Amino acid sequence: MSYRRRKNQDPGNDGGVKGPSSALTSFLREQGINAENIRSRYERSLRQSEDVPDTSGTTTPNDIGPAEDEPQEDISINLQLDSDEEEIEDSGEAVQKRRKVDMTISSVGAMIFCLECDQEFNLSLNSKKIEKYGKVGFLCPSCTKIQIRRDRLAKKHEIEARKKRKRVAAALLDKKQFKLPSLQDICIHVISDNIDGVEILGDIGNHNKIKISRILAKNRSLTNRTLTLFLDNDTKELELWDCSKLDKSSLDKIPAFCPQIEKLILNMCGQLHNDNLNYFGSKLTNLKHLELNGPFLINNETWQNFFESSVAKNLKHFHLRNTHRFSTDSLVSLLENCGKNLESLTLSRLDGLNSKPVYDLLPHFLTNIKHLELSYPHQENLIDDDLIIALLALNCESLETLILDKCSGLTNRILSEGLKLFGAKLTKLSLADLDQIDDTGIGNLFDDWKINHGLHSINIERCISLGDKSVFKMLEHSCETLVQLNMNSVKNISKHLFGKLSRTTVFPSLTSLDVGFVRSVDDSVLAIISRICPKLEILEIYGNNRCTDKALFRENLTVIGRQTDSI
């Protein structure tokens, strides 16, 4: 036997073998605390109380012993404890638990707010109690059903979930829900996967041809040979979203095989040569809509020749992006030859446009514009408040879309002196990266903006000076009509905004929402958004690390960007 055990051993111990005992029992024995001592003390106190005479006279405080103040239950001791099975019951915790249960039962029927989605509801015995966000509360009936269904599904289909994970992740990147494809979609994908063996698509309709074209662009499979599958004499709309593998001779086939074409979209068309554009200007006599992205081989002289052609003078829609060779002379030629007929115009990322006086010519020619995009100018001072206000004043009866992304020279003046007065018909507004637009400007615009009956699309991405007050006024004004909303990186938005929206506002038409890098968005905000946006299909939350896979939202809502989502 060790020295420590001999030292702590009871002197009266006879050294016999004993059964196992708990650590608490051993500790009490070492401290001299046992049932016999407690019983002796208790009997001694009873004998002393019997020896005290019963006096009916008046007593003073000094006559009252401290033992009489203690409640009887405080000295009640379980004398039946065995040395091997001693228990300690924390009566304080038990009483507290009973009080909580009684309080819950007595609160049935009270109006409380759901801990998850912040919806007010009547508390019932069926309400599910949870602990979340450092709080203890109850779920409303809708969230309770979702939670119960989620708990059941979590125990099933684990193997199937692993197999589907990659396909679900791929669908999320495409902003789609993972579901069984239709027979038509299956056929389209089979054709796309075996496009090298297809000699003719046949009469499948222009809509399906556009679908196949987009799939080929995504797979980088649009080549000189596959291009001919989309060309025929009856084609009026042609969308080619990846022309990087199409050479000069293939691009010449477009007007040769499709002389009736009215709408032409060529994306990533870096191989479009001067001769190609001149050929378009001589053959596509019915062309009304031309959209080019990346035609950096077209020089200034060719642009002017094209705009002077009879084809260009019939253009109603012209969209140009990503080229440094479209100069000020090219823009002047465009305005002089096509400006009066244009209904939509896009000038984006054109580094060759570096003259402010040429930009100032826009209001003199654009008087019937419906869709206008002036974005990412080469220099900040090229597009200023006076230019935009003049364009709004001249096109107030027709302008429906205004995109001014990265025109960082603009201030609150375009809101108070432009949109507030002349934005009656506006339905789409994009002000991304306008760092001089602040809370005051947006708040004043949407506060009592009676001439406008609601916007369908709003983009305030990276408008870092906006906060809860102005954003709430904006959403309150257009909540009934909004279909798309982008608030990415508006970092000053707090959780208080979503709590206020949850009790005052509903977005019946909103289908797409981006709140990425809005750090206040967490699982409870996702539940609120899911409830107040009943038709929401796509919700992007990139960069919000407090959004987890435990968030409760509708099954038909596609949430993209959670860190917990993995392939």
Automatic annotation (TrEMBL):
Chain residue ranges for the region called Disordered: 1-72
Residue stretches spanning the membrane: none
Superkingdom classification of source: Eukaryota
GO BP annotation list: SCF-dependent proteasomal ubiquitin-dependent protein catabolic process
Segments forming domain DNA repair protein rhp7 treble clef: 108-147
CC per GO annotation: SCF ubiquitin ligase complex
Basic and acidic residues compositional bias, start-end: 38-50
Record-given protein name: DNA repair protein rhp7 treble clef domain-containing protein
Species of the source: Pichia inconspicua
